[in-house]
């Protein structure tokens, strides 16, 4: 009961977008479908949802890109409740939609806030979530169909994974990779990240309401069997 009381006194922030059939998504994926199977006229209300795993705010397991990688049900429960670090580059992104978070950005963050502890969740705050639910603004295409969106650099991911031993990372955009390099080379940083046997949360919301340090992130999703990803309800508590 003491733990419950402590948590009730904390601030809780929803890090997930609400989703429906109009929600922005990777263009090759179908939209969510929702229908009533029974209504209260039948005595009870039951709905059916059809949705892909990588929809809205969602988790990617390593198997999403990597042969032999872990499935969602291989991720330990304790790895879904982690210290949360929020690296805020929203100012830079507002001035340059193609901004790529660097290793130097991580080091500068640590100079100000202290070293990131092993087993942490590190989120890239870009304030891109404020573009939701506009499909056009989330993708931000130019006249050649290239996305102009921020993303992670390989050097930042390598540093966080191998030097700081993080459990997971997250971001507000639809992809790990920035849009311009992804158009030329594909999602190479997403492949790299998942190949290192860590998971990620994509399309996060409300990171601007979270402190840089001192919060924990709780991530929940159905107990799927053999899933590569799933929509999640992620919550920051501080």
UniProtKB/TrEMBL annotation:
For this protein, the record's InterPro entries field holds: KFase/CYL, KFase_sf
Q: What class of enzyme is it?
A: hydrolase
Q: Which Pfam families match?
A: Cyclase
Q: Which UniProt keywords apply?
A: Hydrolase
Q: What is its EC number?
A: 3.5.-.-
- GO terms of molecular function: hydrolase activity
The protein's matches in SUPFAM superfamilies, at most eight in alphabetical order, are given as: Putative cyclase (SSF102198)
Provide the protein name. Cyclase family protein
The lineage, from the top, is:
Bacteria, Pseudomonadati, Bacteroidota, Flavobacteriia, Flavobacteriales
């Amino acid at each position: 009961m003491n733990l419950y009381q402590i948590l009730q006194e904390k601030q809780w922030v929803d890090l997930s977008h609400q989703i429906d059939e109009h929600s922005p998504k990777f263009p090759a994926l179908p939209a969510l479908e929702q229908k009533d199977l029974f209504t209260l006229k039948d005595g009870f209300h039951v709905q059916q949802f059809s949705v892909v795993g990588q929809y809205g705010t969602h988790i990617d397991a390593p198997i999403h890109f990597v042969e032999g990688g872990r499935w969602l049900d291989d991720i330990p429960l304790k790895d879904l409740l982690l210290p949360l670090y929020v690296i805020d580059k929203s100012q830079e992104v507002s001035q340059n939609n193609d901004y790529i978070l660097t290793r130097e950005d991580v080091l500068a963050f640590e100079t100000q806030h202290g070293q990131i502890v092993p087993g942490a969740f590190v989120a890239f705050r870009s304030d891109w979530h404020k573009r939701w639910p506009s499909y056009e603004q989330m993708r931000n295409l130019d006249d050649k169909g290239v996305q102009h969106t921020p993303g992670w650099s390989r050097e930042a991911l390598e540093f966080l994974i191998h030097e700081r031993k993080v459990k997971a990372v997250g971001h507000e955009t639809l992809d790990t990779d920035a849009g311009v390099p992804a158009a030329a080379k594909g999602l190479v940083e997403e492949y790299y990240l998942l190949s290192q046997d860590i998971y990620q949360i994509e399309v996060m919301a409300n990171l601007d309401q979270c402190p840089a340090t001192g919060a924990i992130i709780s991530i929940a999703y159905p107990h799927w069997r053999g899933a590569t990803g799933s929509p999640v309800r992620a919550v920051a508590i501080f």
